[in-house]
Amino acid sequence: MGGRHVHGARRLLEEALDGPTGDGLVRAARAVVSELGAEERLLPLVRELAEGAGDPSGCALLSYRHVLGFDKLLLIDGGPRHMLRAHIWHPGPNAREDIHNHRSPLASHVVRGALGMELYETADPAGDSGVAASCYRESLSDDGADWLLEPAGDARLRLALTMEYAAGSGYALPPYALHRAWCASTGPTVTLFLETGAERRRYTDVFTGPGAADAGAMARKKPLDVRDYLAELSVLAELIG
Q1: CA gap 139, 142 in Å, rounded
Q2: 3-state SS assignment for residue 202
């Protein structure tokens, strides 16, 4: 079942993302997530979804507390082409993600609060610049229910840029860009996140402090049931309204 705002968002995503590749896809993703993240577009979409429009049962199965520390609510599932999600970030001293990249191009728009971000680049592993880290390849189990971490050696990373995004601003990144983000406000931060691109990498690279993760570590996803998913959407509507 779909409502007017759900159909409109689906149509906009398909029109904007059908065709561009490479850097063009990154730019298109940034433009469309900014348009959909405006309150006059996002709030009625979330309210419509909270009333049961769209695909609540399918989206609930892909909505959960992410291992990187934010609440992830899938709004529109475009299959292998794109996924539109809301991320709810919570403040706290341990709220920063591990440094990582992605499987495909992404774009994010800050709807409420503020998001801090650091961009990193790799340094000579044998050198003394940057910080030491352990590299892991993060992939999904065959059924998609678990995150798997496999060790990929030692590395050194150098901080390249630190930024803070206020409500109304956002960014887009190619899949290989190393970064980490965190809630930079005293209350929850809400971002609209778009993952796109049919040609996706099989794994992402995750960097932690030396020895911070176990070889072959596994974390199970805990998806929401439909009732909790709809309740979370109602909470989201209150946060952004």
Answers
A1: 9
A2: coil
Give the total number of structural domains in the chain: 1
Q: How far apart are CA 236 and CA 88, in angstroms?
A: 8
pLDDT for position 220: 67
Domain that holds residue 56: 4-240
Is 174:104 a contact under the CB 8 Å cutoff?
no
Q: Model pTM? A: 0.91
DSSP run (H or E) holding 142 = none
Tell me phi and psi for residue 158, to 5 degrees. -120, 130
Q: How far is CA 50 from CA 46, 89, 165, 238, in A?
A: 6, 20, 27, 11
DSSP secondary structure string, 90-122? --STT-PPPEE--SS-EEEEEEESEEEEEEEEE
Q: Which residues contact 72 (CB under 8 A, 6 or more apart)?
A: 63, 64, 65, 66, 85, 86, 87
> Packing angle between helix 39-50 and helix 22-37, nearest 10 degrees?
80
- Tokens 């109304």 belong to 168
Output the domain CATH number for residue 141.
2.60.120.10
- Check residue 81 and give its pLDDT: 87
Tell me how crowded residue 186 is: count the other CB atoms within 10 A of its CB. Answer: 9
**Backbone torsions φ then ψ of 111, nearest 5 degrees:** -95, -40
Tokens of 241: 């309204």
Residues of the chain with pLDDT below 50 are 216
Terminal-residue alpha carbon distance, the chain: 24
Cα–Cα dist 8/30, whole Å: 18
41 burial class (0-12, 13-18, 19+ CB within 10 angstroms)? middle
